[in-house]
Design brief:
With about 130 residues, the chain is of the alpha+beta class. It has helices spanning about 25-40, 65-70; strands at about 1-5, 10-15, 50-55, 75-85, 90-100, 105-110, 110-115, 120-125, 130. The chain folds into 2 domains: about 1-60, no CATH class; about 65-125, SH3 type barrels (Roll). About 15% of the residues lie in helices and about 40% in strands. The strands form 2 sheets. The chain has a 5-stranded antiparallel beta sheet with strand order 7-6-5-4-8.
Length: about 130
């Protein structure tokens, strides 16, 4: 667990693992978030200001590499690293929609963003954040 108080809003990151070493899915992480928020609030912790709770597992943060990865993780939150039209490094986040031969499509707040496939340098799974 890490409290990143330098971020605005401050961020509480919680890393979860099964004692058995079994897999933790994004759905598992998302299911843990509401009880954690409830526990923090019932104990009066972090109630003075807004914060973001990030629940993740060792598998989150992995790079999507092949077509199978992109099909398997449709609808999941991703961070896309790419070069913009001027060649500058850029990053954006959204829900993975599709990767075609020519572009990567993500959903950002209900709008489809299309990034030319040749501009994409990396696509990572990210932790769903719950704002409180």
């Amino acid at each position: 667990m890490a409290l990143l108080s330098h971020r605005i809003p401050m961020t509480l990151q919680v890393l979860v693992q099964r004692a058995s070493g079994g897999e933790i899915t994004l759905d598992n992480c998302a299911a843990l978030s509401p009880p954690l928020v409830e526990a923090l609030e019932s104990e009066g912790l972090l109630t003075d200001e807004a914060y973001v709770l990030e629940v993740s597992s060792p598998g989150i943060g992995e790079e999507l590499r092949d077509d199978r990865d992109f099909r398997s993780f449709r609808g999941f939150p991703v961070a896309v690293h790419f070069r913009d039209a001027k060649g500058s490094a850029s990053r954006c986040e959204g829900l993975l929609l599709e990767r075609t031969a020519s572009e990567l499509q993500i959903n950002q707040r209900g709008r489809t963003r299309r990034i030319p496939r040749e501009a994409v340098t990396q696509v990572l799974l990210v932790t769903p954040a719950i704002e409180s």
